[in-house]
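User: I'll paste a sequence; please echo it back and then give the predicted structure.

Assistant: Echoing your sequence first, then the prediction.
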Amino acid sequence: MGDGGRQWTLTVPTGGDTLRQERLSRDLHDTLQRTDGLLVGFHGADEPSEPGRKGTGVGEVALWTAATAALARPASQVLITLIKEWCAKERHRKVVVTVGDGSIEITGRPDAAQERMIREFQDRVASSDSPEPNDGAA
């Protein structure tokens, strides 16, 4: 299935506005959750938080997502497309996508240079998860 086994971390930076970050993160969560083949959750949702606080309690809301075998296209392509569409609804939206040691920031109005960086990021993620050729196959 390619890059579906990896867990991705998605963070919506809002310049310290935690209420806006929580609202936007929940909206992104809902958008991604409607897609067949994607599993989505909040980091730290199973961990105890401070009394009176929702979520992680660390001041930053982050999502995780992973793909199931139901996706026809590589997970990186599906996920990046969904995030780009979500960001495009409002030009000030941003999502930092982290997978493994790499990360990329996707904005609501990407320029040509950012589009190129996104494609390169997708290529790196897809190639790092490609199955190794089986030389012993008959």
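The beta strands are 8-11, 38-42, 62-67, 94-99, 102-107. Residues 105 and 121 are 10 Å apart (CA to CA).
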